[in-house]
């Protein structure tokens, strides 16, 4: 039985057909989330229709940015990158159009389940996954189950307060770039790649920017460890590819 899976972000939409014997990845689509739910829905529906022309599809699995109500699976909260997204019901929309079963989950919680069952955390009792991007997301898996808390939204660590600020406003990948542009407007620090290229050239300004970021990240991660005591903490997001530059200083600072 084939399941068509979507990863819906504010920048891109990724899709893959997963069956018993094969996995087929489809071209990445630019997300129209910021332009409104109708355009976003149109692209998802078009992809479903096209895939069904060539493959049998048993059901749809959606991993999406934003808070997902664990009972209704409607979008409970979304940031400004997702226009008219709050309250939207993917299950109802896809059922009405295609008569297919649908499962919807928050993207970070989906990533945490994936790491627990198939990735770095396989065999661990628990894992906390933290993702760095436009914001900061988090999810805790214990004994194979997502820990959701009393209201279903445990793990939303981006809103945690660090030094009087929201965690994601001072320690996310986008926060790194904002701080760089503000403090060094004459530098070509327009994105994370250029900042890390400057670090490779031993530019003090770029090194100081990353040092500030890892300071704040280490405080947040230390708090997570003290509260949840997971077997493992994993950091995801595109910036996590900067392993030695980003992860090594975080590890050292968390130990302190």
Please explain how this structure is put together:
It holds the Pfam family ROK. InterPro entries: ATPase_NBD, ROK. This is ROK family protein. This protein is of the alpha/beta class. It is built from eight helices and 13 strands. It has two domains: 2-100, ATPase, nucleotide binding domain (Nucleotidyltransferase, domain 5, 2-Layer Sandwich); 110-255, 2-Layer Sandwich (Nucleotidyltransferase, domain 5), CATH 3.30.420.40. The protein has helices at residues 37-52, 90-98, 107-118, 167-171, 173-183, 192-200, 204-228, 243-255, and strands spanning 3-8, 12-18, 23-30, 59-64, 67-68, 75-77, 102-106, 126-132, 136-142, 145-146, 161-162, 165-166, 232-236. It has a five-stranded mixed sheet. The radius of gyration is 19 Å and the shape is globular. The model has no long low-confidence stretch (mean pLDDT 93).
Summary, kept brief:
This protein is 39% helix and 24% strand. It is of the alpha/beta class. The protein has 2 domains: 2-100, Nucleotidyltransferase, domain 5 (2-Layer Sandwich); 110-255, 2-Layer Sandwich (Nucleotidyltransferase, domain 5).
Alpha-beta classification: alpha/beta
Percent range for β-strand residues: 15-25%
The helix count comes to 8
User: What is the level 1 CATH name of the largest domain?
Assistant: Alpha Beta
**Mass-distribution shape:** globular
Distance between the amino and carboxyl termini: 49 Å
In CATH, the architecture of the largest domain is: 2-Layer Sandwich
Mean of residue pLDDT values: 93
- Name given to the CATH homologous superfamily of the largest domain: ATPase, nucleotide binding domain
| Main pleated-sheet profile | 5 strands, mixed
Rg, Å, rounded: 19 Å
Estimated helix fraction: 25-40%
The side-by-side strand order for the widest beta sheet comes to: 3-2-1-4-7
In total, the number of strands is: 13
Query: What is the H-and-E element order?
Result: EEEHEEEHEHEEEEEHHHHEH
Query: What name does CATH use for the topology of the largest domain?
Result: Nucleotidyltransferase, domain 5
What is the count of structural domains?
Answer: 2
> Ranges with pLDDT <50 over ≥5 residues?
none
């Amino acid at each position: 039985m084939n399941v068509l899976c979507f990863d819906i972000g504010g920048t891109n939409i990724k899709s893959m057909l997963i069956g018993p014997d094969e996995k087929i990845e489809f071209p990445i689509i630019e997300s129209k989330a910021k332009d409104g739910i109708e355009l976003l829905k149109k692209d998802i529906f078009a992809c479903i229709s096209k895939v069904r022309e060539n493959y049998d599809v048993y059901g749809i699995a959606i991993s999406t940015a934003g808070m997902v109500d664990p009972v209704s699976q409607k979008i409970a909260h979304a940031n400004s990158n997702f226009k008219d997204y709050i309250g939207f019901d993917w299950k109802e929309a896809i059922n009405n159009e295609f008569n297919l079963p649908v499962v919807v989950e928050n993207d970070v919680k989906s990533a945490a389940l994936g790491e627990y069952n198939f990735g770095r955390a396989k065999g661990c009792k628990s894992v906390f996954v933290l993702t760095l991007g436009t914001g900061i997301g988090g999810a805790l898996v214990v004994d194979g189950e997502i820990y959701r808390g009393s209201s279903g939204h445990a793990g939303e660590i981006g809103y945690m307060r660090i030094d009087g600020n929201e965690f994601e406003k001072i320690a996310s990948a986008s926060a790194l770039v904002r701080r760089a542009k503000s403090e060094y407007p004459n530098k070509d620090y327009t994105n994370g790649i250029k900042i890390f290229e400057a670090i490779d050239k031993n530019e003090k300004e770029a090194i100081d920017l990353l040092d500030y970021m890892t300071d704040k990240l280490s405080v947040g991660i230390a708090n997570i460890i003290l509260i949840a005591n997971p077997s493992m903490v994993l950091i995801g997001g595109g910036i996590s590819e900067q392993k030695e530059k980003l992860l090594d200083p975080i590890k050292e600072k968390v130990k302190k």
